[in-house]
Amino acid sequence: SWKPINDTTWEFKLRKGVKFHDGSDFTADDVIFTAKRAQNVPKSPSGFGTYLKGKEFIKIDSHTIHIKTKKPYPLMPNDIMTVKIISKKNGEGATTGDYNSGKAAIGTGPYKFVEWVPGDKIVLKANKDYHGAGTGMPQFENVLFKPIKSGPARIAALLAKDVDFIDNVPPLNVGKMKKNSSVKLNSGPSNRVIYLHMDQFREDSPHISAIGGGKIKNPLMDVRVRKALSLAINRDAMVAKVMEGIAVKAGQLLPAGFHGVSTKMKPDPYDPDAAKKLLKEAGYGNGFEMTIHGPNDRYINDAKIAEALAQMFSRIGIKAKVETMPKAVYFKRASRGGPNKSPEFSFMVLGWGAGSGEASSPLRALLHTYDKSIGMGRANRGRHSDPAVDKLVQKALGTVDSDARGKLLAEATEIAVGKNYGVIPIHYQMNTWASKSGCSYTPRTDERTIATYVSCK
Questions:
Q1: Which residue has the higher pLDDT, 427 or 53?
Q2: Are 428 and 190 contacting, i.e. CB atoms less than 8 angstroms apart?
Q3: Closest Cα partner for 259 from 62, 118, 78?
Q4: Is residue 43 pLDDT above 70, yes or no?
Q5: In angstroms, rounded to a whole number, what is the distance separating the alpha carbons of residues 113 and 101?
Q6: Half-sphere exposure of residue 135, counting CA atoms within 13 Å on the CB side?
Q7: Among candidates 172, 169, 194, 201, which has minimal Cα distance to 183?
Q8: Is the pLDDT confidence value at 82 over 90?
């Protein structure tokens, strides 16, 4: 259990009787060890400092932890949930290589680590001493995860019965697979919004020019231009044609039902005439040229989304070309590929999944003023900045009362997205899993594929 015991202290009670896979007890010592190690892993492949920075962990007894912060912090349970607790007994002195080999990969979950062959497979076996119950219990003796990058290849493997279950079914194939009685499909909405970030901090933007290639003051700094771009997007067509109906058009950072969502905001209508009028009012009636940058292997149909946007923008006089690249290259350049490690691109196709389950996640990362020293705006590649938004976000992050925090987050969204067009939401991604007949998957909004969510008759 967990609860705030005062404005700056959370108390976490650990479940008793939980055992690690090697039979040792799970205690507060393991939590304290994890909190220290996760922030100081040499050459860490994935940092957890964002979730642990500024938190003091105190052991009260063998199964009680207090976590203190300098200011009220309502998202403590969300942050702690993100960091997986490891065994102090097996982790002291262990390297990343020891975890990858399995030597130190000792957890408390429903499946035990057996083997990892990079690029080939991960093998797990059931933990028969697992402390959970019901749907959390392991249903299979052995589980093998096999990465297959190509969507058609994954489908072919399922139809050939080489595998029992696949994730990330391409939208183009969903309709046909629904007619196949030998497979079962499960689809569900995610908390990932596909959106556009635009250069709002450089008057001379590197990938924008006047028609014909001459110099031009960055039009994306004008909110009328950003709104015009939003009105030029035919979201219904994007969902129906590009996403094959497997998406939901978006007007804000999270779909209805999540905490901090505004009830006042709807997706912008497709209105190219109004878009042209706004461009003229802003002094860009003749249009301009720009490059749309995006990944080609990160989001569902990401390259096709960029191509469709270029076509839609051409209808309001904006000549856009598209440049996509592998995610490993794209995100590094998009974040710090420019001078002095600034964002390189002018106009970007991106996605964001709210790990916290509320609007604070995208607001603090995408729309709060970029400030590395306090961990704000870390993914704000357009450098949107509004003191009013910053104030609301920071106040929300210090408000423990859930209802009050939700109202602050909704207000911040209404300003940052609805008024400022700091980002332009396009659609919420939906995900589809497929399995052999007799099996099914319970879709997760965080898009993860977890063995305990697979059930078979």
A1: 427
A2: yes
A3: 78
A4: no
A5: 10
A6: 8
A7: 169
A8: no
Task: Name 319's Cβ contacts closer than 8 Å, sequence gap at least 6.
Answer: 211, 287, 288, 289, 290
Written as six digits, the tokens of 372 are: 């590395």
Say which residues have a Cβ less than 8 Å from residue 158's Cβ, sequence separation at least 6.
Answer: 164, 165, 166, 183, 434, 435, 436
In a domain, 335, yes or no: yes
Same domain, 355 and 269: yes
Among 187, 229, 248, 185, CA closest to 422: 229
pLDDT at 295: 97
CATH number of the structural domain spanning residue 38: 3.90.76.10
Q: Which domain holds residue 222?
A: 190-430
pLDDT in tens, 148-201: 989 999 999 999 999 999 999 999 899 899 999 999 999 998 999 999 999 999
CB 105 within 8 A of CB 113: yes
The total number of structural domains that make up the chain = 3
Answer yes or no: are the C-beta atoms of 343 and 383 closer than 8 Å. yes
Are 166 and 22 contained in the same domain?
Answer: no
Mean pLDDT across the chain: 94
- Does residue 51 surpass a pLDDT of 90? no
In angstroms, rounded to a whole number, what is the distance separating the alpha carbons of residues 353 and 337? 23
Band of the pLDDT at 373, cuts 50, 70, 90?
A: confident
